[in-house]
Every structure is written in C-alpha cells, then in structure tokens.
Design brief:
With 439 residues, the chain is α+β, with helices and mostly antiparallel strands. 31% of the residues lie in helices and 16% in strands. A hairpin with a 6-residue loop joins strand 12 and strand 13. Helix 1 runs parallel beside helix 10 and helix 2 packs parallel to helix 12. The two termini are 19 Å apart. The relative contact order is 0.17.
Length: 439
C-alpha cells in the first residue's frame, strides 16, 4: 500500500490524514511541535486555533452554514469535534479552543493508520505528499517549496485579537458589560461593552495615535481585508469602527432597554466563560498600548489580558498558476497542497480543502478517475477560485461566499430566497455527486 506523507497537523493536515486513514491508506503525519513553534503558536496540540475561536455562522442559508452542511456530508472530523466543543455564540459555531484541540489530537493519535512524527520537515519527502503547513510554514520548508515552484515573496500579514480574563471584566454600572445578542436582548451569547459618544471619541483618538509593534520583515506588509487590524480600520475614518465591530445596532441593555453610541462585543473562549475574545479587535498595537487603550473602554477599565493581539507573517502560494484542479502541483503530480497555504481563508475552508486533498489523493492511489465536484457546491467554488489561472496575476485569499457560485436563472430578486436556493441546490448536488462517485 502507498504511504502518504502529510506535512502539518493543523486543521487541513488532520482532515487529510483522517480521510486517508479512514480508507486504510497509511499516513505519516509530520508536526514540528512541540520541538519547534512558530511565533504565533503556543500549544503542543494539533489544530491550534491561533486567531478567533469562531467557525462562523451555523445558519444553513449562509455560505458558511452551507459549507458546514457539505463538510458533514463528507464526514468531517474537524466539524464533528467543533460541534462537541462548542460554546454559546448565538448563530455562530464557536468553540472552547483548548478542548477542541485536545479532542482533535486524541482522535488523530488513535487512528490505526496514522503515524505521528514530531520533527520539522526541511525538504519535501519522496512519494505521495500533502503539504498542509499553513500560513506559518517554517522558513526551511518554505525554501524547499520555493525551489520547485520558483516563486517567492508570497505572503501577507495577519492580525489576531486579544483574549481577556472573564473575572476582570466590569459588569457593574451604566457602562458595565452586559450579556445580550444583537436584536435578542434575552440571549446571553455575547458580553457587550458599551460606550457613549464622548468615551468613543477618546477611544478613537487613542487608537489612531497609538504606537505599533515592529514587524519582522523588510518588505511592505500586505493586509488581508478579512482580518483587518482595528487601528487600520480606525484610520479609515472616525465612524468606520462603528459600522464594523463596534456597531451598536440591535444591542440594548436588557433591564433598561438603553441603547449606546458604540459597543465592543466579547465572545466566550471556553465553555465556563473564564476567557473572552475581543471580537473584531485584531491588532498590531504594542502590548503596553493595548493595555492602556483597551482599558479606556469602561467595562474593561480593570481588564487583565491572557493574550495580547499581534501580527504575524502568513504565507500562501500562487495556487492559480501552480495547482491542478485536484490540488496537485503542476509538473509534480505526487505533491498536493491543502489548507491556508493554498489561499483558502478561514478555519473550515482550510479543513474542507484538507478533506478534498485527502479524497482526491485517495482516489488517485486507488486508481479512481478524478471527477470535479459539482460547481454549485461551496467547496467546488473555492477549489475553482484557487486553481483558476485567471486569478494568478493578483491572487488573494478567499473565504466561502455565495458570490463564487453560479447564479440562478432567471434571477431571484430576494437576497434571502436566493441564498436559500443556492444552499439547497448545492447541498443536493453534492449528495448526488457523493452517491455517484463512491466518496
């Protein structure tokens, strides 16, 4: 039986290894932790969630909800464990990140056909390989990749949000934090930190004049729009934050129905609510500046930080110029890429890409002819986007969205009805594909 080397035990690597092992194909899963950590990773566990703990919406009529339905059809291990380790987050699927990683690690280590190798891979192994090293690929291994793809300087900078200790958040007074969901004051999905106009003005001026941490590169940073630092957002205009993560619309204090000028939302990081993530507060402010400025939010006046926000270099390849439709490397069809290194953006998008790389390679090993997924599915639309040569001159990461799908004809005017139709159509077509192709 052909053994496969999977490089990286993040979400994509774990999914790829699990799919192959489920079909009795031996896998060597390489993970450099705990011997070596990237600048953003801290945990020795697999599937460490570096940024947010949210897997986005569960609503089946959203693109992220549709993706979850598709992944469920394909027996996603990551999605299964995310549901088992979920914390309250309204319509979003958010997880206790430590419990999630523990369970993912336990499941992967218990697979009969997976052998774990804890070492940094510095050159591409021989035979079948799935490269799922993510956006934080080590310099040594990236150098080996660049030798065969003949490209460099493919990176952007990504920012992560601070995490606070729950017991340090002020819940008292008119500007103390309170539990509520947007348009649903009696739901306790988010902890809301309100501000009046004067408080917001002070906060805004502090952010736009704050000191930034130095980035470890001589190159000009490329900021991905989907993960924009709060200070970059603030510099686009005084009210930009109020139309983004500090949007007060639909939020009011349950006991008084009071509304506010701006609201910072906090989301649970674990089941017991001892840690909270500052939603939308990815940042590259210096640590001392974060403590000073974020404590200007009245409910966070005594806040203690488990982790400050930071920025780190994220690497991705020019997939449209390099990858075949089955995620194999052009000219090196034994080498597959999966996850964020391909340019898919988002936790579940990365996991889904890993699943598909595993399925595609499984079929190749077993002599099954490659058949593209139905173009109406979210997963197919993502693969088509990252492998479409037309995108190669200005390629940027992409998350799941309905704009990638073929639109219905005749057009449907209602956005809600259109999204419902797209979701139902895509899931139905994928079911038929699975039944027809024996996935």
């Amino acid at each position: 039986m052909n053994e496969v080397s999977v490089i990286g035990a993040g979400l994509a690597g774990c999914e790829a290894a699990y799919i192959l092992a489920s079909h009795k194909i031996p896998v060597k899963l390489y993970e450099m932790k705990p011997k070596k950590f990237s600048k953003a990773h801290k945990s020795p566990l697999f599937g460490e969630l570096v940024c947010s703990n949210s897997f986005k919406s569960k609503n089946k009529d959203t693109a992220s909800g549709m993706l979850k339905l598709e992944m469920q059809l394909l027996n996603s291990l990551v999605l299964k464990i995310a549901n088992l380790s979920a914390v309250e987050a309204g319509q979003a699927l958010a997880v206790d990140r430590n419990l999630f990683s523990k369970e993912l690690t336990r499941n992967i280590k218990s697979c009969k056909y997976i052998t774990i190798v804890n070492e940094e891979v510095k050159s591409i192994p021989k035979g079948y390989v799935i490269i799922a090293t993510g956006p934080l690929t080590s310099d040594a291994f990236m150098a080996s990749i660049e030798k065969i793809i003949n490209c460099s300087n493919l990176y952007f900078y990504d920012a992560i949000a601070p995490i606070l200790y729950g017991d340090s958040i002020n819940l008292n007074g008119s500007y103390g934090a309170f539990y509520s969901s947007r348009y649903a004051p009696n739901q306790k999905d988010y902890l809301n930190c309100p501000m009046n106009e004067e408080q917001y003005d002070l906060f805004y001026k502090s952010i736009v004049n704050a000191e930034l941490a130095k980035l470890h590169s001589f190159d000009k940073p490329k900021i991905y729009e989907g993960c924009m630092p709060i200070e970059v957002m603030a510099k686009r205009g005084k009210d930009t934050m109020r139309f983004g993560p500090l949007k007060p619309v639909g939020i009011k204090r349950p006991e008084t129905n009071e509304r506010y000028y701006a609201v910072v939302q906090l989301r649970k990081e674990n089941l017991v609510g001892s840690f909270f993530n500052m939603v939308g507060f990815q940042t590259n402010l210096k640590y001392g500046e974060q403590k000073r400025i974020f404590r200007q939010i009245p409910a966070l006046k005594d806040a203690e930080f488990l982790r400050y926000g930071s920025m780190h270099k994220n690497i991705f390849i020019n997939s449209p110029a390099l990858l075949n439709e089955n995620l194999s490397l052009k000219g090196f069809e034994n080498i597959y890429f999966a996850g964020q290194i391909t340019g898919v953006e988002g936790y579940l998008e990365s996991a889904a890409c890993g699943m598909l790389a595993g399925y595609f390679l499984k079929n190749k090993i077993k002599g099954v002819r490659f058949t593209p997924l139905p173009e109406t599915s979210i997963m197919a639309s993502l693969i088509k986007y990252i492998t479409n040569k037309a995108n190669s001159t200005n390629f940027q990461p992409m998350s799941s969205n309905f704009g990638l799908l073929p639109m219905p004809y005749p057009p449907i005017k209602s956005k809600k009805e259109k999204h419902k139709m797209l979701s139902e159509r895509g899931v139905k077509d994928l079911k038929e594909y699975i039944n027809s192709n024996g996935i």
